[in-house]
Each structure stands twice: as structure tokens, then as C-alpha cells.
Write a structure and sequence with these properties.
The chain is an alpha/beta fold and 218 residues long. The chain has one domain: Alpha-Beta Barrel (TIM Barrel), CATH 3.20.20. Helices cover 53% and strands 18% of the residues. Strands 1-2-3-4-5-6-7-8 form an 8-stranded parallel beta barrel, surrounded by 6 helices. Strand 5, helix 6 and strand 6 form a beta-alpha-beta unit. Helix 6 runs parallel beside helix 8. The chain is globular and about 70 Å long.
């Protein structure tokens, strides 16, 4: 499964990239706005920090003609860029157009399988199923993820199911069990994936025994 970091913070992208295991970056208007920097500047710097990654950058218009202009502009900045599009009627129309042009897309704000079906049929590269926000409203966000993975596999769509709004490592585990293709999450959630108390205690014992014995590698 691919791992993306969900951020607009360049320091966070740099840190995640240094691990050598992150496959891309997702951004959204809120994350970009938090940086206080120009959109294009941030996106291109992210591409530079993660040269092999898929970098999602979102259109902000909601009328089709303006969305198309924005999408063509954004996609022209760097071949790594995946145009992020909200799941609205004009968004699906846009995805169909971009697919015909060979431009990769990430359809965002997907909460149901019926929405995911529309995205898949339009040719979305990634279908971003949100889980945390669904959990916040008393339902199980992973239900739609599992059903979307089944749908993609059953009908042979080329889209990859991207689990978004990931809040904790359990969401990642559930994404793996569901057969999702990608999970995107904040840096702090990725950092949590390194942690286990038995790892900490085991390392502490190894180092104590090594030091007690007075050993050295060099």
C-alpha cells in the first residue's frame, strides 16, 4: 500500500521524504492557506522535496469552465502533479475531460460508494474516501472504503482507492485489511506508526547489555 503525507508544510514534507518510504503528498486549500505562501510556490517546492512522488493540488473553482482553466494551469507546473477535484457534478465532468487529456486526477470529498462509482467511471486516478470525518458523525468510515475497493476490483476500474482523513494507525491497519491502494495522513499520524512500547523496551535492553559489555563496532 502506498503512503502519502497530507500537508502543505514544507518542513513536514522534507522530514517524511527523508524516510524513503513515502510515495506522495496530498494538499488541499486549507493546508495551503495555512502556509501563508503562494500556491504555486508551495506545490513546486513539494515536488522538489519529493521528486518521485505523486503530488495532489486542488482546484478551487466550482463552475466547469474555471475549474478546467485552473486544472490545466496546475497540471502544467510539473508532471508529478495530480489535479485534485471535489466530487460535485462539474467536478466529475472535469475529471472526464482531464482523463481524455491524459491528466491524472484525485477525486476528493468522497463519502459513499455511489459517489466513488461516479469518480471511477469518469476515470479518476485516485478516489479519496474520507473515514475520520464519517467516524466523527457516528458511522464507520471504513465501510465505504471496503465497498469501494470491492467495486473497483469487481468491475476492473483503473482507479486507486485512497483512504483520506486518517486519524490513527488503526485506520491504516483497516485500510490494509480492506485492500485499499493508498492511505494519506498528517505527519503526526505517520510518526505514530513507528511507535510500539515493546520496541522501546527491547531497544533499551539491547543497548544496556551492549554498553555493559563494553563493546564497540569500530
Amino acid at each position: 500500500m502506498k503512503l502519502f503525507v497530507d500537508t502543505g508544510d514544507l518542513d513536514e514534507v522534507k522530514k517524511a521524504a527523508e524516510w524513503g518510504v513515502i510515495d506522495g503528498v496530498t494538499t488541499n486549500p486549507t493546508l495551503i492557506a495555512k502556509t501563508g505562501k503562494p500556491f504555486k510556490e508551495v506545490v513546486l517546492k513539494i515536488c522538489e522535496l519529493m521528486p518521485e512522488g505523486a503530488i495532489s493540488a486542488e482546484v478551487v473553482a466550482t463552475d466547469y469552465d474555471t475549474m478546467l482553466k485552473e486544472a490545466l494551469e496546475i497540471s502544467s507546473w510539473n508532471p508529478q502533479i495530480v489535479v485534485k477535484v471535489p466530487l460535485i457534478e462539474n467536478g466529475i465532468k472535469l475529471v472526464s475531460t482531464l482523463t481524455d487529456k491524459g491528466i491524472r486526477t484525485n477525486v476528493t470529498l468522497v463519502f459513499s460508494v455511489s459517489q466513488a462509482l461516479m469518480a471511477a467511471k469518469a476515470g479518476a486516478t485516485y478516489i479519496s474516501n474520507f473515514v475520520g470525518r464519517v467516524d466523527d458523525n457516528g458511522a464507520d468510515g471504513m465501510d465505504a472504503v471496503r465497498d469501494t475497493v470491492d467495486m473497483v476490483n469487481t468491475y476492473g476500474f483503473d482507479s486507486e482507492v485512497l483512504v483520506a482523513s486518517v486519524r490513527h494507525p488503526l485506520h491504516v491497519l483497516e485500510s490494509i485489511r480492506a485492500g485499499a491502494h493508498v492511505a494519506t495522513m498528517p505527519l503526526k499520524t505517520l510518526e505514530m506508526m513507528f511507535k510500539h512500547p515493546m520496541t522501546d523496551s527491547g531497544l533499551e535492553r539491547f543497548l544496556a547489555d551492549w554498553n555493559k559489555a563494553g563493546l564497540s563496532i569500530f
